[in-house]
């Protein structure tokens, strides 16, 4: 008996709803219409500011022009027009029942607060630095936005020419907008302001190989600037060692080892003299990370790596990897950055001389390797010039 009133109510409501030609809520506003502003780059209605809006990237092209890998650099100097877009409209579930006029202006007070909180010096750009699809109205002290009857919103767009020689100024451009006045609709209590602070302009590079094969590092003997400048330490028998050796980790098509090499010799120490040093071997792993620009990663072999018989030289401090090592195919030079070797960073420039792997053997023995076969016998499991 207790369920009868509930069933009767549902049945009556359903019958009443079905008896109408149109739903009784049609053309009725569910949410209060209020004027609001938002950026087209925003992902949330509640977001009220965006810092460092990506605006443009100038892309230079390194173009190789012959088989000797001579190259030209094509500088991207074209002026680009970045757009900073805002959407101004009325909330609610229905379009405007009549024309709505709003005035949007720059909010210097909000920008001052932003600069204090963020410790920045962002500023509204001068009028000469941009154009807009809606002209600035001096009398109204803002941009007059008209939302026509039957519409819900319109756009306010700022076009900013981006010039390469001025690229540092755009990071301080700010567009702090605020709806100042509105006719025929109240202002939103929360969403009448939006801040775009900073336009991010960057540089990048690309490579045009022009059909020439992408070069690989040649294996063999390299003249080392670091070794040549450290003659006193690398000449225990009266001879100056000035070479490092680079070997591929494999000479077969092994996906795991392709474009991976061993540099025999660490920073300013020669593999020929100190190769089997008690603090670690004089070698590093060299791995290609960007084939277009010939960028390589250099990393030490640390203790516990079962693929190598000994760790890379690590005396008192542990060498860190570096990923800004560059191979120049035209000069056949490899620039290596060693990080934190005995507490310091070193830069070495290796210049390819020949595919000769013959070691200048130190007859006194000690930590000096006597042959590549001896290296193999100690447990090195990758390719060697035997």
Notes on the structure:
The structure is a single chain. It is built from 5 helices and 19 strands. It has an 8-stranded antiparallel β-barrel with strand order 12-13-14-15-16-17-18-19. 10% of the residues lie in helices and 38% in strands. The model is unreliable at 1-19 (pLDDT under 50).
Low-confidence stretches: 1-19
- Structural Rg: 35 Å
Q: Which structural class should the secondary elements be placed in?
A: mainly beta
User: How many E-type strands?
Assistant: 19
Give the assembly state of these chains.
single chain
Strand residue content: 35-45%
- Give the helix tally: 5
Order of helices and strands, N to C? HEEEEEHEEEEEEEHEEHEEEEEH
Question: How are the SSEs placed, and which strands pair?
Answer:
Elements: H1 4-18, E1 35-39, E2 49-64, E3 71-74, E4 80-90, E5 100-106, H2 108-118, E6 131-132, E7 136-137, E8 142-147, E9 153-162, E10 174-183, E11 193-208, E12 220-224, H3 225-228, E13 243-248, E14 260-264, H4 271-274, E15 283-290, E16 295-299, E17 322-328, E18 333-341, E19 344-354, H5 372-377
Parallel strand pairs: 2-11
Antiparallel strand pairs: 1-4, 2-3, 4-9, 5-8, 5-10, 6-9, 7-8, 10-11, 12-13, 12-19, 13-14, 14-15, 15-16, 16-17, 17-18, 18-19
What key attributes describe this structure?
mainly beta; eight-stranded antiparallel β-barrel; seven-stranded mixed beta sheet; 5 helices; elongated; disordered N terminus; 386 residues; 10% helix
């Amino acid at each position: 008996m207790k369920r009868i009133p509930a069933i009767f109510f549902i049945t009556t409501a359903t019958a009443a709803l079905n008896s109408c030609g149109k739903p009784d809520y049609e053309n009725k506003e569910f949410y209060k219409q209020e004027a609001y502003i938002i950026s087209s780059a925003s992902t949330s209605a509640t977001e009220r500011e965006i810092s460092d809006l990506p605006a443009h990237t100038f892309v230079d092209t390194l173009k190789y022009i012959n088989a000797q890998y001579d190259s030209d650099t094509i500088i991207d100097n074209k002026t680009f027009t970045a757009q900073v877009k805002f959407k101004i409209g009325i909330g609610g579930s229905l379009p405007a029942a009549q024309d709505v006029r709003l005035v949007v202006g720059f909010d210097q007070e909000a920008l001052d607060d932003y600069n204090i909180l963020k410790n920045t010096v962002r500023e509204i750009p001068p009028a000469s630095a941009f154009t807009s699809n809606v002209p600035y109205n001096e009398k109204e002290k803002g941009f007059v936005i008209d939302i026509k009857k039957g519409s819900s919103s319109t756009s306010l767009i700022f076009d900013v020419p981006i010039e390469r020689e001025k690229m540092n100024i755009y990071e301080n451009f700010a567009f702090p907008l605020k709806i100042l006045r509105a006719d025929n609709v109240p202002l939103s209590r929360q969403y009448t302001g939006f801040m775009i602070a900073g336009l991010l302009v960057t540089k990048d590079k690309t490579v045009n190989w022009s059909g020439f094969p992408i070069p690989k590092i040649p294996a063999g003997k390299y003249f080392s600037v670091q070794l040549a400048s450290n003659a006193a330490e690398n000449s225990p028998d009266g001879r100056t060692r000035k070479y490092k050796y680079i070997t591929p980790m494999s000479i077969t098509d092994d996906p795991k080892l392709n474009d991976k090499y061993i540099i025999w010799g660490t920073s300013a120490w020669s593999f020929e003299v100190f190769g089997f040093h008690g603090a670690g071997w004089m070698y590093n792993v060299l791995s290609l990370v960007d084939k277009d620009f010939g960028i390589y990663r250099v990393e030490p072999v640390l203790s516990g790596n079962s693929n190598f018989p000994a760790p890379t030289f690590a005396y008192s401090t542990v060498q860190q990897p570096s990923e800004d090592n560059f191979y120049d195919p035209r000069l056949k030079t490899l620039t290596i950055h060693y990080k934190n070797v005995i507490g310091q960073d070193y830069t070495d420039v290796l210049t390819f001389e020949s595919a000769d792997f013959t070691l200048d053997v130190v007859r006194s023995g000690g930590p000096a390797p006597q042959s590549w076969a001896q290296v193999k016998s100690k447990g090195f499991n990758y390719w060697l010039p035997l």
